Amino acid sequence: xxxxxxxxxxxxxxxxxxxxxxxxxxxxxxxxxxxxxxxxxxxxxxxxxxxxxxxxxxxxxxxxxxxxxxxxxxxxxxxxxxxxxxxxxxxxxxxxxxxxxxxxxxxxxxxxxxxxxxxxxxxxxxxxxxxxxxxxxxxxxxxxxxxxxxxxxxxxxxxxxxxxxxxxxxxxxxxxxxxxxxxxxxxxxxxxxxxxxxx
Amino acid sequence: xxxxxxxxxxxxxxxxxxxxxxxxxxxxxxxxxxxxxxxxxxxxxxxxxxxxxxxxxxxxxxxxxxxxxxxxxxxxxxxxxxxxxxxxxxxxxxxxxxxxxxxxxxxxxxxxxxxxxxxxxxxxxxxxxxxxxxxxxxxxxxxxxxxxxxxxxxxxxxxxxxxxxxxxxxxxxxxxxxxxxxxxxxxxxxxxxxxxxxxxxxxxxxxxxx
Lengths: 199, 210
Prior knowledge:
By secondary structure, chain A is mostly helical.
């Protein structure tokens, strides 16, 4: 049975202080005209979701924060030319994803991989052995992800972990939906094989 | 709501990673059907298809744990770091003349815009976005300026002309009293009509924080 892959957070519908302050389009217009306080609200509103995205793409919290920080600063510089066709959240989602893709491409194949140790423990209460089991599986998955190409990894994470539609992923990465589907399929093959081997 | 709205397109042709299951179905099709929530009589009964789908289910279970692991971040430290850099790269805009012709007093566009947006937002329910300046009809570096401001107005506004008039009055008043900026025209563009949040009394009319 298929699972519900609704995105946990559409890029332009952040729940954080949604009602606190003007909407993104107004803040983006202000920031484009040099209002840095408006930009600060946008950063606060979107930072959490973007760090989560980058962390999922890169598997490393520190690198994720660097990528998101760079993306915001680059956005501040490009804002005067931004016409707002996509919405601020979608625009930043694209910048962060492509920045992470470049980081992944620059990695040495099979390079040193940070274990999932620095990740916060899940907050739900489950029996300790089930937590251990789940954490071991997550670590195996992290390990298996290093076997994917940067492009496969990006497509798979956006689809499977972040729950984005194929069309959105194709737009974000500037490739065809067909290419996204092919990469997600190959990633699933690799990951199911790798996880199966450790069962 | 789900995102399974794409057409059940054919699998990538000639994918070397694809595999024909012993039952004759291609693995890519079985997985695509799983993703689309499509089932037929064959998949319900076929042990090979069920096994292929079970592999994906196991992967999905692990992905859920991964999602939990990458949830919840404190955005405050990152916001501080970003804003530290932004404040070194401010874009204040051009200087606008304040006071009389023979004075040498100016205000930067970004600062003036902030004041005028706040003034517009004193009209209940109004939210201001873009606020730009252009030389007025008289022209000249120290001549009066025209303002063009974009606002969102409440959907429930009975008369947009009255609302626009009130916004204009507030903007002109702030330009005169708070800035000393000579404004000839205030061009108001209502770019959206929005519903107000439920039960949110508008505190901005008293000049509260925005």
